[in-house]
Specification:
The protein has 241 residues and is mainly alpha-helical. Helix content is 73%, strand content 0%. The chain crosses the membrane at residues 21-43, 63-83, 104-125, 157-181, 188-205, 211-229.
C-alpha cells in the first residue's frame, strides 16, 4: 500500500494567516496609540471658567474638531485591535500550564466596541453641538451663548451614556490585561489597562494631566504591538482558555 504524500500547504497557509493577524493587530495598536495621543496634544486648552470670545474661537476651531475626531477614531480602533489580538493569542503556544487568554480577549472586543460606540455619541456632541454654539457666539459677538455648552455637555442622559461608555472601555482594558497576563505579555497588559481604566478620571484633570494620560494610553498600546510581534507563533489551533 502506498503511503500518501505529506503536504505542507495547510501549514504554510496557516503561517501566512498568523503573520497577517500579527501585522494587522500591531498596526491597529499603533494607530490607536497615535490617535489617542493626538487628541490631548491637538485639542485647544482655553480657560473655560469664564465665557469669552477667545474661548468661543477655540471651541469653534478646526483643531477642536480634528482632536475630537482623533479621540473617536482611537477608541474605535480598540475593538478591531483586540479582535486581532484574540486571533494572535489563539495561534500562540501558551506557557507551560498556561492558557491562551482568548476568552478574555473576546470579552475585550465586545466591551471595547460597545464602549467606543457610546463614547462616540458624546464626542459627536462635543464636536458638532459645542462647535455650533461657539460659532454662534463668535458670529454674534455674544460670549453669553457659551452658557449652553455646559447645558449640552452635562445633561443627565449625555453624562450617563458617556460614563457607561468609558466604564466599558475600562473593562476592555482589564480584560486585555488578563488575556496578556496568561501569555507572557504582562507589562503590555498592565500599562494598557491603566490607560483605559483612567480614561474617565483623567477628564477631571488639568491639561498636563490629560496629556500625560494620552502618553500612558499610547505607551500601553505600543507595548501591545511590540508584544504581538515578539511572541512565538504556531500553526496549530488550541482550545480556548
Amino acid at each position: 500500500m502506498t503511503t500518501p504524500a505529506v503536504t505542507t500547504r495547510p501549514s504554510t497557509e496557516a503561517g501566512r494567516a498568523g503573520r497577517r493577524a500579527v501585522r494587522w493587530t500591531a498596526l491597529g495598536a499603533v494607530g490607536a496609540a497615535l490617535l489617542l495621543l493626538a487628541f490631548p496634544l491637538l485639542r485647544p486648552w482655553p480657560d473655560e471658567t469664564v465665557p469669552s470670545l477667545a474661548l468661543a474661537a477655540d471651541l469653534a476651531s478646526d483643531r477642536w474638531v480634528i482632536a475630537h475626531l482623533c479621540g473617536i477614531a482611537g477608541l474605535g480602533l480598540l475593538a478591531p485591535t483586540f479582535l486581532g489580538l484574540r486571533t494572535v493569542l489563539r495561534d500562540r503556544t501558551p506557557p507551560a500550564g498556561g492558557r491562551h487568554g482568548t476568552r478574555a480577549a473576546t470579552a475585550a472586543v465586545v466591551t471595547a466596541w460597545l464602549g467606543a460606540g457610546l463614547c462616540a455619541l458624546h464626542y459627536g456632541a462635543e464636536i458638532f453641538g459645542i462647535r455650533t454654539i461657539a460659532q454662534a457666539a463668535v458670529r454674534t459677538g455674544d460670549p453669553a451663548l457659551l452658557a449652553d455648552v455646559e447645558v449640552l455637555r452635562y445633561q443627565p442622559a449625555a453624562v450617563v451614556v458617556f460614563a457607561l461608555g468609558l466604564a466599558l472601555v475600562a473593562a476592555a482594558g482589564v480584560l486585555v490585561a488578563v488575556a496578556l497576563w496568561r501569555t507572557g505579555g504582562r507589562r503590555a497588559g498592565l500599562v494598557t489597562a491603566a490607560g483605559l481604566v483612567l480614561y474617565l478620571p483623567q477628564f477631571f484633570g488639568t491639561p498636563a494631566v490629560r496629556i500625560s494620560h494620552g502618553v500612558l494610553a499610547a505607551v500601553g498600546l505600543l507595548l501591545v504591538a511590540w508584544a504581538v510581534t515578539r511572541s512565538r507563533t504556531t500553526t496549530a489551533g488550541h482550545p480556548e482558555g
